[in-house]
């Protein structure tokens, strides 16, 4: 990768572009609210006081640093490179999502907002955001398609217990797409009082950069922890990619370390030949979604395609624009893992290490095992265990006939 090329994919330009991807293409009523967020974040990012307050929350509330765990049993079973797991599942509230939700709510508070607003599909983002809002004393409103409200009942209850207001969206397909529009419209009408909080490295600038920055603590910790444990950097890092926040968090500190191979794992669902997958890098094309130019799984008319993954946190028809740029530059390898392989990794890690991973994270574990097997025993692979699997046990039990 040339130097010019690398600066375009490591950091966005002044218009929020990573090479050909990103930007902020917004309907007129959202231009001013999002510009306000961009300006506020640019200041906060360079303010030691804001950074110290954020850092304090990560240490004293989330419980950071999370462990970098040598999975010795799994390594022995697989046979090959050493497998380490970055234990984001041990964070308070059970996944990496709390890292960026706390950052976003802290920014909202600094901007003098009374309330945060978001959409949620499976409910994981809504729960993490409701958690952060409860702690920092802001109101929280989460828009959710009626179909998802029914399917994700436990997360609806969690959000309500945390003091959030869940708004069911009953028009159109009553799913995530309608929830996004509904949440954005409510936000635009009330933005003096409210901040919109996005749940991954997606959406208009500044969100892809801001969410990455909040998550980058993950990779910084891995670097330090690995130097301490092994006296050197790992040979490969592996993370699952839905929108791409846990992957960007792990990768960011390693982007300039060209000897460390980076792998993003997309969900191949029931196979790449049909429509039952969400492998945007493998099968998508350049397009537009949620205020950004990026790769999209889309129909001929430009509408996002219906997508599927066994892991509800991965079934997104777009992907963070920085990932699209990192793919084109060749710095990150994007690969896939199907439902069956993720399910097998879920079972294997549970039995071999006593760690029940989220189905999302199981995609990374599956690929890390495959990679480790091909490598010599003096190599080191780190997989991001983005979340715990408690939320998935009922579904997995059904699938496995338990
Ligand atoms: C939401 C979620 C993901 C997918 O989101 P990214 O932005 O791609 O990281 C992965 N793992 C877990 C546990 C999640 O909750």
Automatic annotation (TrEMBL):
InterPro entries: Trp_synth_b_CS, Trp_synth_beta, Trp_synth_beta/beta-like, TrpB-like_PALP, TrpB-like_PALP_sf. It is an enzyme of class 4 (lyase). It comes from the Bacteria. It catalyses: (1S,2R)-1-C-(indol-3-yl)glycerol 3-phosphate + L-serine = D-glyceraldehyde 3-phosphate + L-tryptophan + H2O. Signal peptide: none annotated. The beta subunit is responsible for the synthesis of L-tryptophan from indole and L-serine. Its cofactor is pyridoxal 5'-phosphate. The modification N6-(pyridoxal phosphate)lysine is found at residue 97. The keyword Cell membrane does not apply. Tetramer of two alpha and two beta chains. Residues 64-387 form the Tryptophan synthase beta chain-like PALP domain. This is Tryptophan synthase beta chain. GO terms for molecular function: tryptophan synthase activity. Belongs to the TrpB family. Pathway: Amino-acid biosynthesis; L-tryptophan biosynthesis; L-tryptophan from chorismate: step 5/5. Its EC number is 4.2.1.20. Keywords: Amino-acid biosynthesis, Aromatic amino acid biosynthesis, Lyase, Pyridoxal phosphate, Tryptophan biosynthesis. PANTHER family: TRYPTOPHAN SYNTHASE, TRYPTOPHAN SYNTHASE-RELATED. One of its GO terms (cellular component) is cytoplasm. Pfam families: PALP.
